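Schema walk-through. Below, the input block comes first and the output block second. Nothing else is stored per chain. Lengths vary across the set, and this one has 334 residues.
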Amino acid sequence: MSWIRRMAAGRGRMCLTLAATSALVTGLAWAAAPATPPAVKLAAAATPAGSTTPGAASPGRTAGFVLDHGRYLPVAPPRGLEDLVSGPLGPFDINDRGQIVGSYLDPAGRERGFLLDRGRNRFVQVDVPGAAGTQAQGINDDGQIAGVYSDTGNPSVTGATLRGFLLDHGRYVRLDYPGALSSQAQNINDRGQVVGEYQAADGTFHGYLWQQGRFRALPDSASGINNRGQITGSAGDLTTADGYLLDGKRLTTFEAPGAQITLPRDINDRGQIVGFSLPSLTGAVSGFALSQGRFTVVNRPGAALTALFGSNHRGQIVGVGPAAEDLASLPGAP
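--- output ---
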């Protein structure tokens, strides 16, 4: 597992997709992933003054959470369905109806997407037909789901061939950027616009916007889009990744305070951007929320690290915060 994918010229670049980062920060693959140590060594995150630390029990095997106006609520399968999963659920997005999508490992080691409707106590597997592994990465209020799958292995494993998809009320639509070596769909808004990332034939990575069958290229990886059409994502190589906000034709870059690597993951209609950052390649992973130019550090109590992945327009945020013992059980961990 790695955050790095190597380009053809050999230059390292941050792979800004959830497909790679999710497994690293959640420990989704501790039971069955190949024994490949992470390329970036994770350090436990301290809790700086002013960061959000409302009460929550030790993360344990419920590494996934919903941060709901100061309260950390665990994301777990409904009672009676625990045997379907091996390890915790990794939540990646939440819509205004409270529906959550993400991925998990089944007992056979296969990565599967999921839709969790906590209000209706409903848990649905999201699997692209014929795929070796699937991740559900974004969901809108209409229930449309965007994500990534692979025909060659689990999407979170470096080297897997990645493809994007849209699940539209039971119908799977393949989203492959024309001529690309790989493509990933990372998020979707209520207008059905999808943003993602693709790898061009020359090995370089770029973002895209898809709507009604048409692709529009973006310079850098795109991970979030709101209903106002504002897009967020990350730009730069492994050592200098910054966040950006694209609002119409206006592009603004930003970095979390003290961060060398800033990875935004989502933006809601309030303009709030959530993601995570590192002060160095071997530094502590901390979540952040950026609103009206103000950063708030988010560290889940008792967690070794915290990463935020999705936010709805009600201000609810999903993320992961595994405990130190969970990380220690990852294959290849020291």
